[in-house]
Amino acid sequence: MKVILLSDVKKVGKKDDVVEVSDGYARNFLIKRKLAVAYTKGSSKILDEQLAIKKEHEAQLKKEAEALKKKLETMKLEFSLSAGKEGQVFGSISTKQIHQALQEKGIEVDKRKIKLDVPVSSLGTTNVEVDLYKGQVIGTIHVHVSQKG
């Protein structure tokens, strides 16, 4: 029996996939638990419409991410840290601080999307990458660290 999956099912398929499963499995497990619906002309038409809407929404999100990327690349975040005589820095700039600085400028980015393997702990400018859209749109933030006092 052909069914359209309404959610991800382990070892069967992902949401919106059309899969062939045994009649008993489809009726007694997938359809009964609302994990799938039977594949018919009507259900396939609804699926196509939903996929078109989803694709359009994804395109809009990507477009917004591209605009945010351009905005981030013109921006420079300024931080200051205490430093010793030989330029040795005391402290570091973490993703949390970068996230807060972006929020102060009115830009909302998920803190977990800021790609910073180790905190910024050197004077000067460092480029920090931000995943704005599913790894397809990567923005760059210029983080400038200067010496306090």
From TrEMBL:
**Cross-referenced InterPro entries:** Ribosomal_bL9, Ribosomal_bL9/RNase_H1_N, Ribosomal_bL9_bac/chp, Ribosomal_bL9_C, Ribosomal_bL9_C_sf, Ribosomal_bL9_N, Ribosomal_bL9_N_sf
- GO biological process entries: translation
Choose one Gene Ontology CC annotation of this protein and give it.
Answer: ribonucleoprotein complex
> Domain named Ribosomal protein L9: which ranges?
1-46
Give the UniProt keywords, A-Z.
Answer: Coiled coil, Ribonucleoprotein, Ribosomal protein, RNA-binding, rRNA-binding
Name the domain of life: Bacteria
Where in this chain does the record put each Large ribosomal subunit protein bL9 C-terminal domain? 63-146
Q: Which Pfam families match?
A: Ribosomal_L9_C, Ribosomal_L9_N
Q: Which PANTHER family match?
A: 50S RIBOSOMAL PROTEIN L9 (PTHR21368)
Q: Kindly give the HAMAP family that the UniProt entry links to this protein.
A: Ribosomal_bL9
Per the entry, what this protein does is: Binds to the 23S rRNA.
Can you name this protein? Large ribosomal subunit protein bL9
**Which species is this UniProt entry from?**
Faecalicoccus pleomorphus
Q: Which lineage ranks, top first, belong to the organism behind this chain?
A: Bacteria, Bacillati, Bacillota, Erysipelotrichia, Erysipelotrichales
